Each structure stands twice: as structure tokens, then as C-alpha cells.
Write the C-alpha cells for this entry.
Amino acid sequence: MKKNLLIILLLLLIASSQLFAQNVIVNNNLTFGTVYPGIPKTISKATAGFAAEFYVSGTAGSEITIDLALPTYMNVGSSNMQVIFQETDCAIDTSATPDQTNPEFNNLDPWHTLTYRIGSNGLYLWLGGIIVPGLSQNEGSYASNIVITVTYTGN
Amino acid sequence: MCKLNKNVFLILALFVAMIALGTPTAVQAQDVAAGSATATVQTPLTVTASAALVFGTIFQGVASSVAETNANAGVFTITGQATSGISIYLQLPDYMSTATGDDRMVITFSTTDCGVDTSANVDPTAATGYLNQNPYNLPTGVVIGGAGQTGLFLGGSVNPSVDQTAGAYTADIILTVAYNGA
């Protein structure tokens, strides 16, 4: 009897923990591909395969905050290249049928905390950007990190 | 019976503790993922005036021409990312001037005075590719050659007047090159 009750208690504890478990993953990195010195290049948030795509899973209906730590430069060795994120470069879709080209919430500012509720199919976030290589930009493969932090608000 | 009550009490106490302590921690749960932005920058362009357009010695009243395939043609060397498309633009003078600026001489460029060679060749006498091109309207579709270099050759004509002041005349010829993303 005591053993059974302890097992039930343990299951309840596990269930309680899983109820609020969440996860954010990177489905696609922001990929500018080949660029030429002196020619800025824009990747739209609506361009699948090139725009960054993050996916948040968790309890449907739960409110979360999303914070993006965005770079201002990309680097290779000691060379830097400016990368710009405009105040409309982000989009989110929490619907059951997420659509990158026609997202539920469009033209969001990636520099500010975003607060949304996780949908039945999770939450998709897309991010575009612009890079501005200089006329004498050193050749090479440039990269920088984009860090996304997702936090439950408890609401 | 007493033992059972004790167990029930213990379970309830733990359950309340779990709700009180465990759940708030979970509600504030946070997750972090690190993506990246990536780009591959191609070789920067360089433009070098490898050889001046040289008319040499000329005489008052006698026009002189240099073909773009002549050894005295002007030569520009462009280097960059092999096979990448470029746009090229020549800014050509209307006159050449003496060093003191006290006289000037007409210089002209015909619609066939330019050649663009996308091989690694920088010898105008061996020019291939885009020959007899209009220097005021250079061809589109030009690329950096497979060896990472393209040559531009420029001829022209001078028309000294019958009372042209003797001396050395010069003028600037400016070539602007930019990647066009093609």
C-alpha cells in the first residue's frame, strides 16, 4: 500500500514537471549565402531556408516571453562585417497551420521582448536581416551567434 | 488504521510541498537556443591602371590614334572573385592639358576603342573576348575571368590644333568596377 502510494506520488511529481516543460530549437540558421564586397544583401523573414527559424514547444496556451540576443557584426578572424536587424525583421506564428509567408504576427521588432502564447502546434519564430559588406571587405566565411531565450511568464 | 492515516498525511504533505515548491520553479522555466547568421564574402575587387594610353610624340595639326589592340593602348587590370559578374564604367576626358594648364588638346574615343579580355591576358596586342566595344557604354555580362582577372584595353585619338602649344599633355581616365551580383 505504502509502496503504491509512493509510486503514485512520484508519477504526480514527474507529471507536474512535464506539464510546464518547454523547449526551443533552431530549425534554420540565418543564411546569407554568397555576398560580394560593396553589395548589401537582405534576407527576408519570409524566405524559407534562408531566414532563421526557431521553434518553441510547450504547453499550449502558456504565455512566454521571447528575447533575442542579436549581433551587430559578423566575424571571421579579425575581420568584421555589419549585420542589421530592423524593427520589422521578425514574425511569429502560433496557429495550427504556421505559414512563414503569411504569419499570424508579422513585422515584429526583434530587439524587444516578445510576449505570446504557445499554440497547439507550438510557436514558430522567423527572423530576417541585412548584411553590409564593405567595398574592401575581406573574403571569408563570416558568422555570429543569435541567441534566443524563452521564458514562461506563469500566465 | 493509524499507520494508514500517517501515510496519507505524509503523501498529502509531500504533494502540497510539490505544488508549493516544484510548480513555481517550472512555471519560470527558461530555455535557450543558439542559432547563427552566416555569410560567405567573395574576393574584393581591385583595379589597377597597368599601362597608360600613350600617344607618344605628335605634331601640330596631325591627328593621332591608338587602337585598343595596340601596344600603346591603356591597360586596366581588374582582379576579384573568378566568374563573378561585374559592372564597369569608364570616365573619359574630353581634353588633355599641359602641366601648367595653359593649353589643352582634344582627345576622343570612338565607339570601338575598348576591349575587355576575361582571360588572364594583360597584353593588348593579344586581346581576346569583347573587342571593338564602346568605352562610353561598356558591355553587360562581363565577368571576372576564370583566373580571377580581367583586362580592359583602351585606345583613343588626339587632335592637336595647328598652333597647339608644345609640351607634355595628360588627362585622367577613371575606371570604376563593381560587383553586380551576377
Observations:
- Chain A has one domain: 22-152.
